[in-house]
Design a protein that fits this description.
The structure is a homotetramer. By secondary structure, chain A is mostly helical. Chain A has one domain: Substrate Binding Domain Of Dnak, Chain:A, Domain 2 (Up-down Bundle). In chain A, helix 2 packs antiparallel against helix 3, helix 2 packs antiparallel against helix 5 and helix 4 runs antiparallel to helix 5. The radius of gyration of chain A is 14 Å and the shape is elongated. Chain A starts with a helix and ends with a helix. Chains in contact: A-B, A-C, A-D, B-C, B-D, C-D. Chains A and B meet through helix 2, helix 3 and helix 5 of A and helix 2, helix 3 and helix 5 of B. Chains A, B, C, D: InterPro entries: Csp_YhjQ, YHJQ-like. Chains A, B, C, D: It comes from Hydrocarboniclastica marina. Chains A, B, C, D: This is Four-helix bundle copper-binding protein. Chains A, B, C, D: Pfam families: Csp.
Chain lengths: 110, 110, 110, 110
């Protein structure tokens, strides 16, 4: 579909980022030191939510897709930074997915 | 991530189905005979919404992921059937994504 | 709007329940003993997500509104039961909102 | 709950706006001249989606609640303007809910 192709790379980054953030939020809750992960979990929740909406806006070729992607890029970057501070595999994997999504959304928003 | 791997195939089907449904809803609105597409658009909206939530439940390894997938399978199947009636490329492509997601969700729910 | 009136009471219960669950998830993360709140937070995330989708289905008078409400009732009930175990004000308030929503959704689904 | 009280008025406006937009999207699809309503429906879909996420961010007292509300205000305003052009009761009622939400979100974002 031409309509999806123009956004393919950003769409896939958003979907993957949302999945990793949702996964990471629950994996953090299972760590021994949950207290230390509270900020990470909050970022995960915000990031997963906006990534799923940004994907929907792009798939609908919304007039607001660029503005949504610009905000999504900020929230993904913050989540990448926070997750990146923690050594857990789930955080490191999530940080990568968030960084990729932040980069894709920034390109999209340009 | 092991947490995502167990659901990988269904997760990807849900994300793809949501994207196709969101795309199809707007493509239907641009057809000459929109009236004829009203049911398709309504199915698209319901299907996109539940697929994004089902993906979130699976990624969080929710206790309710199976029950959510069971309902998702029904709604995807209905959307596949409705989209499949229309010759537009976007409907045909969407019907395939919905059918694949219905099948994956049914397996997941088992 | 006649379209919203028929669902008014359940719609409002779903929106309120989602808000309380989102609020409770973050309030739990700020408690000293977060570990003990992990199940509560997971239920909150599931419950908030389905309540917002159930509200959307009702507002769209979806063919699947009843089936969505039936699943929503189960997840709200589980969240009410889990939140009800904890003495924190946010958990007790959230439990009430979840119980009200479970009851409304059950009626809707009938 | 103190956590919800600070956002009460904006939260309620977001939830109501989402409900009206979801309702209006489907009511538009049932009009005789659906073609003329295509832009309204697309605005409704975007507006409902961001209002539900903005409500979640506020309820979670997210660091990004203000930025989300700022974008939400723009999309609500656009939807209020588009709905306001159409004489159907559902569009007029929806326009009012969108205008109220745009105003509340603008205040929140300040």
């Amino acid at each position: 579909m031409q309509q999806l192709e123009q956004y393919r790379s950003c769409l896939e980054a958003c979907n993957a980022c949302a999945d990793y953030c949702d996964m990471c939020s629950v994996a953090c809750l299972q760590e021994d030191n949950v207290k230390m992960m509270a900020d990470c979990i909050r970022n995960n929740m915000d990031c997963a939510a906006i990534c799923r909406v940004a994907a929907a806006y792009m798939a609908r070729n919304s007039k607001y897709a660029k503005q949504m992607s610009a905000l999504c890029a900020k929230i993904c970057q913050a989540c990448a930074d926070e997750c990146g501070k923690h050594d857990h595999d789930h955080c490191q994997e999530c940080a990568k997915a968030c960084q990729r999504c932040a980069d894709e959304c920034l390109k999209m928003a340009a």
